Amino acid sequence: MKMSSLLYAIPLIALFGACRTDHSKTSSNKTVSFACDEDIGTIDPRKARNLITINACSLFFEGLFETASDGTIKPALVGEYSISPDQKIYTFTLRKAEWSDGLPITAHDVVASWQAALSSPVRSPNASMLFVIKNGRALFDGSVAKEALGASALNDHTLQVELEQPVPYFLKLLACHPFLPLPHVTQDSRELEWRSCAYSGPFVVASWKPSSELILRKNEHYWNRDRIQIDEVRFLVLDAGTALTMFETGELDWAGSPMATVPPDAIRALKASKKLHILNACGTQFIRANCTHGPLASKKLRQALAASIDRSNICEHIMQGGHEPSALLVPPHLGLCPGPECTQEPKQALEDAIKELSITKEELAKTLSLSFPAKERTQKIALVLQQNWKEKLGLEIRLEPCEGKIFFEKLSKNDYCMALGSWIADFADPINFLEVFRRKDNGTNNTGWENARYQELLLASDNAPNQAARAILLGEAQNILIDEAPIFPIFHFTYNFVCSDRVRGCSISPTGLITIKDATIEDPMP
Amino acid sequence: MHTNDFESISPEEKSLYIAPHSEKVRKNLFFRHVGCILGLSIFALLALFAIVVPALSPYRYDEVHLALKNVSPSSGHLLGTDDLGRDQLSRVAEGLRLSLAIGLLAAFLDLCIGLSWGAISGFCGGMVDSIMMRTADFIYSVPYLLSVLLVAAIVGPGLASILIAMCFVGWIQMARLVRTQVLATRRLDFVLAARALGVSPMRIVIRHILPNIAGPTLAMLLLTIPHAIFTEAFLSFLGIGIQPPAASLGSMTADALSAMRYYPWRLLAPAVTISATILAFNLIGDGLRDALDPKQKKCIESPYAN
Amino acid sequence: MKYVLRFLVIRTGLCLISLFVIATVTFLLMKSIPGDPFQDERGVSSECIEQLKRFYGLNDSLFIQYGRYVKSIFCLDFGPSLKYPAIQVNDIIREGFPISAALGLVALAIALPFGILFGLLAALYHGRGIDSLLRLLAVGGVSVPSFCMASLLQFVFAYELSLLPIARFDSIAHMVLPAVTLAIGPIAIISRLLRASTLDVLGQPYIYTARMKGLQRRHIIPYHVLKNASLPVLSYLGPVIANILVGSFIVERVFAIPGLGQWFVGAVLNRDYPLIGGLTIFYSIVLIISHTIIDLLYTLLDPRVRIYAHE
């Protein structure tokens, strides 16, 4: 059967492919088209790793909570909720909602989804976000049964969650993609099949042509369907230049962040014509320093390198998208107070470091190198960094461009000297940034650095009595991180995008989710 | 060799036999060939450009001046600046040098491998020939893009990977051509005579056969160079070519593509240069092939050219 | 007829050996690439990677993996893609190939007539202005890198002049620009090759004879000149047809065509081993088929040629 089906493709029935009418053309006017850099890859939020897939999954699966465009969390599937005095037990009452096949969404579905995400043979890479639930980690390791998980359905509409310890940002977590409830029939299977899957979100998957387009249609079973004014959403996989051209001729409604990039050369022209939108993102670009690699174990050297980066130049001339130069890891709009100004003279710090390490400057320069994935923007940043360090410190550092997968492998094995890196937050809270460097064996750390006081502060922040106290504790932790300098932050990301005038009310939340639920179409009168 | 006997040799063999009396005609053909002259003059201009500009330019090709980025052509920068403020004129000259070097090096490597493979295969004939050409066919059947990417991924981006990737498959055309020529030549009388005298095969190939196939081989070589430059441009477009700050015409063209609408000079300068280089080599190669192919002499008497 | 049968049988045998060798070469290359297919920027945990590797059998010994690969070739079933586990490699090929092939056939339909026309004209009016003009055009066509040409055509005709659609593959009009871009290279080379071989044929005694016999020019050119001159062009066309049918990465990326060519680069960059294997074998099959058709055409056009006749 399979052989013949493959041979079927070879003969000259090719022309039928060209003459086929495209069903996507016969849609109504209430269609919004987005440009994507690459295909979503999967409709399973348990496997979603980039903003494209996360955005798509958030459109056809509804979470317990949702993120508004200003970053606040609003209840979605949850109607009411209460928190126990010790902050460990949350009780949620779910709304009346149903899947797209008509069956009701119950608390049992939610519990089963989370159990599956942690225990299924699927091994979701996002499962670590579920470890806050009691026995989450144990279930993942296989040492307890599914039922021991701290999430239980008291009845069809009431969900009770018990946490390992108090988590002040738990509601923000619940709005993230690993917590999305999945339909009961497909939880244990390896892959969700888009044709047969039941959806809970404002849209359902109408068709998916891999590496070409994803078309979503309004979900008639959505619990809040009157709120949705859009009938169809299209995600088109396009090259960045082609996307911009199509936007200008009106064939595309949205190009750029969060699912694609605006070509850097176009930014000046777009800013001049006032078409470019710039929004703050929860993300930072930084340089990782391998603290176990030779001279970089010296704190003074790291501080010298961090202090001599010309951040404003990089932001203004290379990124050009309103990026904010910063020596902090956590974006300021998340509410952490910056620590004391760094008064280190980079040259002085370098001298101290050289004395400490008792090697000459030339030998030092020979051991230092900067690795980065060989992409257009990162190449330019690396070149400018090389120039910075040469001019300000007299150190000529080697550049090591690597291909994508090789770069990630090097990072995970700590096989680098310095490397460009970035972190985009899963949810809008400082802890998501600071947690990256909590333990040196974190999959996300890769610098070989950890600090006892830092870990204490992060732990204490979970038990902080109020927001203000928590902010102080986290701020202090960040100060330790910046002072020790296992990373050298460069700038905070922004979202750069262009949106056509006919789409109103559509924006991006700080974590990169497109808020299309409140969007409306205003076609100009013919 | 009497003219009568000359007529009795088959057309393929005739094409290889270098008759002394035709040298003059050959030279005339070569230099009267308009395309060839054009190609040579373009090449001379480009060579001049590549030598003179880096010597005279006040800017280095990798000097970054962020504040001066994307300046249009002006008196300070004759071809403008790119998105990191580097002077385009110096970069194009440097890129031309690098592209030419890559082209020549890749073509030379192709020649070495292809020539030896084809000569051995053609001269030995029989089973050895069969196996060697089949192997070449197999290698040729791996999709070019895939093999290039795989090699580049193994070796890492940069000059080495481009050369290896290009030579991985590039020598096969040359080998096929050489083999066909050698197969035809080895049955000619002077080769048979040499063998009868007991000259070693190696010597026969080097001293008797190779000079006779030099013409078409040289023409093929000259046509391989633009192909190599082209391939390098393509690899740079994919991102696995020359890495900055080194500049090659291909990588400059690829980078400037997205800036085509906003800063057209960034695309124009390297694109025109790369096109001119490839054009020049193609014209010279065509001219050389036309001139060295004795069959072409008859074209002047074509019944339709009146 | 007996000849054709014999030819096909021997050719099939050789093809199977070819496929086997190509598969081995591809397999060795794939296994030599460094880089983990499952790692990404946010750092996937090692347990996750281990489990994924176990599922795809990447932890087994090389021999077992090779055996599995060869088996998948014979069954023509390459399993799910690594990067897109919900999609089967066979489906990718089945959906992408008809589109690339349609585009390729249109491109060939443009390239062949124009290439033959230019080559013939250049040869028939050899030495005159039109010859130089056509030759310059041909060489010019291959002098501009293809990605440049694609973007330039898109900019001029689709954006500035708004004559044609910018990208994607929704109608016949969408095929024009990509097909023209694909056709430029083959036009240039076909015309150059045909010119050289036509000049050669024109000098042959039998053309003189035909002319002396009083045959019309419009009879001589297709039946005597073209038939004999097209042999070198045919041997060039074999790989070109295969490459065009399978799709060009650049054209498909710039014009957002959902064909097969765009998958090649991504497959290698993502270390998508099943997809790389599947695409390689598929391309090899297409190449072998196109070579076989060309060889058969060769024997039809030139009865003196008999491949495998001595074996």
Report how far the terminal alpha carbons of chain B are from each other. Answer: 34 Å
**What is Rg of chain A?**
25 Å
List the uncertain runs of chain B: 1-6, 15-21, 296-306
| Sequence stretches where pLDDT stays below 50 over 5 or more residues of chain A | 4-27
Q: How many strand units of chain B?
A: 0
The proportion of residues in beta strands of chain B is under 5%
Largest sheet of chain A at a glance? 7 strands, mixed
- The average pLDDT score of chain B comes to 79
Secondary structural class of chain B: mainly alpha
The whole-number mean of residue pLDDT values of chain A reads: 87
Helix content of chain A: 25-40%
CA radius of gyration of chain B? 23 Å
How many strands appear in the DSSP assignment of chain A? 21
The general outline of chain B is elongated
Q: Structural class of chain A, please?
A: alpha+beta
What does this structure look like?
The complex is a heterotrimer of chains A (526), B (306) and C (311). With 526 residues, chain A is an alpha+beta fold. Chain A has helices at residues 2-9, 14-19, 51-60, 107-119, 136-141, 170-174, 240-248, 267-272, 299-307, 311-319, 346-357, 361-367, 376-393, 404-412, 430-434, 452-462, 467-484, and strands at residues 31-36, 65-67, 73-75, 78-83, 89-94, 151-155, 158-162, 203-209, 213-218, 232-237, 254-256, 276-289, 324-325, 369-373, 398-402, 418-424, 487-499, 503-504, 507-508, 514-515, 520-521. Chain A folds into two domains: 13-239 and 501-521, 3-Layer(aba) Sandwich (D-Maltodextrin-Binding Protein, domain 2); 283-494, Dipeptide-binding Protein, domain 3, CATH 3.10.105.10. In chain A, helix 9 (299-307) runs antiparallel to helix 11 and helix 16 (452-462) packs antiparallel against helix 17 (467-484). Chain A is globular and about 75 Å long. In chain B, helix 4 (34-56) crosses helix 12 and helix 5 (88-124) packs parallel to helix 12 (264-292). Chain B has helices at residues 3-7, 11-16, 23-32, 34-56, 88-124, 126-141, 144-155, 159-185, 189-196, 201-238, 249-256, 264-292. Chain B is built from twelve helices and no strands. Helices cover 72% and strands 0% of the residues of chain B. The radius of gyration of chain C is 24 Å and the shape is globular. By secondary structure, chain C is mainly α. Chain C contains twelve helices and no strands. The mean pLDDT of chain C is 85.
